[in-house]
Amino acid sequence: MKTASAPGLDPPDPFTLAQGNAAPRAAQVNYKLQIRNYNSVVSDLSVGEKAVVAGRAAWQSVEGAARKNRWTRGLWAGAAAAVRSLARTVHGLFLEVVGVLFLSFALAGGIKTYTAWQRHASRDALAAGLFFTLLFLYFGVSSIWRARRK
After folding, report:
1. What tens digit of pLDDT does each residue of 57-109 get?
2. What is the pTM of this model?
3. DSSP type of residue 45
4. Which residues contact 1 (CB under 8 A, 6 or more apart)?
5. Exposure pattern of 82-104 as b/e (b: 16+ CB <10 Å)?
6. What is the mean pLDDT of residues 13-37?
7. Mutual angle of helices 70-118 and 123-149, in 10-degree steps
8. Where are the domains of the chain?
9. How far from the centroid of its chain's Cα atoms is residue 113's Cα?
């Protein structure tokens, strides 16, 4: 007969408990202490951590059942392929949008630097504007380049 126990804890052997000597009694007390320690650890978990543990257990149960069913495996593989494709597309779009945003910052910095040069601004202001423009130009071009490579 198998008795329910906490994960990782071994219950005392029922055969030695039936003999009635002191050593099995000590094993039974030790097991109860282990259970109490386990329960104290579990009760220290927050609600969110308990939800994560429960979700992980549910996921493992569903995943185990999915490995046994051919239809579920097929649907799972199709969904995974669709998610990968969608993620790749969204990532490429994200890189392009960020690249355009950086290029617009570079254009604004370039216009501001040009107007500062026409007003004969100091060299430090021109150098900072030129650095800003070139840096954002590099960010924009490299982001769009990475989007095109994918």
Report:
1. 777 777 776 677 788 788 888 999 999 999 999 999 999 999 999 999 999 99
2. 0.53
3. S
4. 14
5. eeeeeeeeeeeeebeebbeebbe
6. 54
7. 160
8. 45-149
9. 42
